[in-house]
């Protein structure tokens, strides 16, 4: 699969027995398997003494990631005692409107008969507008920074246990040369390709990742999961995470991270042996530290 490969989404997407509304202006979602596998790891007993978790989803689009995480999380009886707060952030008001529509649909379709905390958590879930790449705010800016947007929430300064993101990661070269017409016709370039930066020295498709790592540090995230285009991009992002020096462990997950038949793999990055899980293409980067290591049982 080439770095420019993404699948078009029209109408709605069905994930983990849950349907989500989308349209031609909605961001692409390809992290369902990784998110479900993350929930699986968290649900194996590492959270038995945890009463409250907070999750932040950056570049949230139509809200598929927090809604899927919520659905899968409370599908595990062992998590019923945990109060889960979820916040999704995106730059597009149109995508956020669809996210709230999906939230309402999930409330009406799944909340009835569910445990009380399931419904309360779903009702508390919030979707807010912010610019992930912006680092400072001026009076002329109409879209706030992530920090400014989060400062409007109840926690000051804002802290989150888990941070997930499926950012734009296709380089302008790959968008032109290898991205299929179906994707270019039905998804906005904003959701696929990072904006051009004349000051950044990172790879064209990697622009979001240093900023995401910085936000993870600022919100004190213990578990971080990012989607990437392929193994080459995964290696670059892992190198940045290792050099940041904030993490107890870093892993690369392939498309099917839970595939137990896959061979054990490691990759040497900046003199660190990085574990690669599963089968398929390089798809996600996992980082963890502190309590996160115990939560994941790694």
From TrEMBL:
GO terms for molecular function: methyltransferase activity; nucleic acid binding. Transmembrane segments: none annotated. CDD domains: AdoMet_MTases. GO terms for biological process: methylation. SUPFAM superfamilies: S-adenosyl-L-methionine-dependent methyltransferases. GO terms for cellular component: mitochondrion. PANTHER family: HEMK METHYLTRANSFERASE, MTRF1L RELEASE FACTOR GLUTAMINE METHYLTRANSFERASE. This is Uncharacterized protein. It comes from Extremus antarcticus. The lineage of its organism: Eukaryota, Fungi, Dikarya, Ascomycota, Pezizomycotina.
């Amino acid at each position: 699969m080439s770095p420019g490969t993404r699948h078009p989404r029209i109408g709605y997407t069905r994930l983990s027995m849950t349907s989500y509304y989308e349209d031609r202006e909605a961001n692409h979602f390809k992290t369902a398997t990784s998110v479900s596998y993350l929930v699986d790891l968290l649900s194996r007993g590492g959270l038995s003494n945890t009463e409250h978790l907070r999750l932040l989803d950056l570049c949230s689009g139509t809200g598929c990631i927090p809604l899927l995480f919520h659905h899968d999380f409370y599908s595990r009886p062992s998590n019923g005692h945990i109060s889960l707060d979820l916040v999704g952030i995106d730059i597009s008001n149109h995508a956020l409107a669809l996210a709230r529509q999906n939230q309402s649909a999930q409330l009406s379709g799944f909340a009835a008969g569910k445990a009380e905390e399931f419904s309360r958590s779903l009702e508390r879930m919030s979707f807010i507008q912010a610019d992930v790449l912006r680092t400072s705010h001026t009076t002329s800016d109409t879209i706030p920074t992530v920090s400014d947007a989060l400062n409007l929430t109840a926690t000051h300064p804002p802290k989150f246990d888990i941070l997930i993101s499926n950012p734009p990661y296709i380089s302008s070269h790959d968008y032109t040369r290898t991205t299929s017409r179906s994707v270019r016709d039905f998804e906005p370039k904003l959701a696929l390709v990072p904006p051009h930066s004349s000051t950044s020295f990172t790879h064209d498709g990697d622009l979001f990742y240093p900023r995401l790592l910085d936000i993870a540090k600022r919100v004190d995230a213990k578990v971080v999961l990012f989607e990437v285009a392929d193994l080459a991009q995964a290696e670059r992002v892992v190198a940045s995470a290792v050099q940041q020096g904030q993490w107890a462990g870093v892993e690369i997950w392939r498309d099917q991270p839970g595939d137990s038949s896959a061979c054990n793999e490691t990759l040497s990055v900046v003199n660190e042996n990085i574990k690669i899980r599963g089968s398929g293409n390089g798809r996600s980067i996992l980082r963890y530290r502190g309590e996160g290591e115990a939560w994941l049982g790694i």
